[in-house]
Prior knowledge:
The protein contains three helices and no strands. Helix content is 74%, strand content 0%. It starts with 9 loop residues before the first helix and ends with a helix. It is elongated. α1 packs antiparallel against α2 and α2 packs antiparallel against α3. The protein has one domain: Up-down Bundle (Methane Monooxygenase Hydroxylase, Chain G, domain 1), CATH 1.20.58. The model has no long low-confidence stretch (mean pLDDT 88). 1% of the residues are buried.
Amino acid sequence: MQHYGYADNKSDLLKRLNRIEGQVRGVSKMVSDDKYCIDILTQVSAAKAALDKVALELLRDHAKHCLTNDDVHSHTGSDKADELVGAISRML
């Protein structure tokens, strides 16, 4: 079984993602309940920020593990760097 860089943080990442899932359900309920637009936007912003933190943790784990571990993929160092830059560009 292949292990990725986030393997050590998997349970923490899943906890964060479950909280974010709850936040998104809360935003949906706010819309259903006709809550004030600015309050909804505040919660959307909080959920986006939480997802960004998850993404940054995954990038950190990738950089620490996947860019230094030649056994993970058969890519060269340059390919791995390009892959990381591509991931960062998608986030931006």
